[in-house]
Amino acid sequence: MFRRTTTTAALTAAGALMLAACGQTTTAADSGDSEKKASAGCEGVATSTGPVSLTDSFGNKVELDKPAERVAVLEWQQTEDLLTLCVDPVAVADGEGFRTWDSAEKLPKSVTEVGTRGEPNLETLFGTNPDLIVVEAYTAEDEILEQLAEYDVPVLATKGADAKDPVGNMVTTFEMIAEATGREEQADKVVGELEDKIAASKKAVADAGAAGTEFVYYDGWVDGANVAIRPFGQGSLIGELGEELGLKNAWTGKVDPAYGLGQTDIEGMTTLGEATFFHTGTVDPAGDVNAELAKNKVWTSIPAVSEGRDHAFPAGIWTFGGPRSAEQVLDAYVDLLTK
């Protein structure tokens, strides 16, 4: 089971995340599609009302007179997190891409688009009058942080990924955003549901006799005449979730220190023996890598492929998402291994 960092535990153990609240109110969901929010369990969500003081992932203090309400967000996991916390962002980067790759939450059509995740349009972003901007960074010197520092709007910088503890980092990011928006009670509820889902999913895998199954999750892209494959190895969020269920990640090749992602080609995947494969079911608008793989005789001779053990996850599961995406990942593993 992953180590859960609740708001209370974080305050007590490290003093790194500090929240001062004068009270709580129980409010209806923020502006947006009320029917969608009610169906997502957002009716009457409790919201803190007092000032907020916390430290972000890179040691920067974030001070707010009250929990943030008009939040702009520049990465998909954090967009999903806001929606799970029943906060509709006022601005997002690449909302159309989010709607393609992340089905865990529904992004309202009314949200303002501010360009790409890598190069947001800051003029449009600040034109939405946000009281907080949530970004994803990898170091305290990231260019986006330097750009935003020129403006007088608080910025919450969250750590993009951490291969040392991918599930813990995902939960910490979610809870940090909950503190900034006064939605700690909702965060505790959601994280508790994720813990329960992991336990139930692990039991289902064991009951089906699938515990110990060697697996590799991968995605890829078409690069000219070649196909590049990206295995999700040790330290990847989706790989760690599989191992939480009692599975064994078979990819032992080199991975990056943040996301736990490897890189290989078709021949590299032939070394994985009898491992079961899983892959994204979302078709990349830039090219259908799985259609290209199906044309390759070396690929189709790999045991997992030739024996029908190369399973597509349902479309729209974001492999770098928050707690609700993680629940979708767990459901996919269980459905595909126990059917």
TrEMBL record:
Alphabetized UniProt keyword annotations: Signal, Transport
Family to which this protein belongs: Belongs to the bacterial solute-binding protein 8 family.
Subcellular location: Cell envelope
Keyword Signal attributed: yes
Signal peptide per UniProt: 1-28
GO cellular component, one term: outer membrane-bounded periplasmic space
Protein name per Swiss-Prot or TrEMBL: Iron complex transport system substrate-binding protein
Coiled-coil blocks: none
GO BP annotation list: iron coordination entity transport
Domain Fe/B12 periplasmic-binding: 70-339
Major localization listed first in the record, in broad terms: other
Pfam families noted in UniProt: Peripla_BP_2
Region (Disordered): 28-47
Protein origin, superkingdom: Bacteria
Natural source organism: Nocardioides albus
InterPro entries in alphabetical order: ABC_transptr_periplasmic_BD (IPR002491), Bact_iron-sidero_bind (IPR051313)
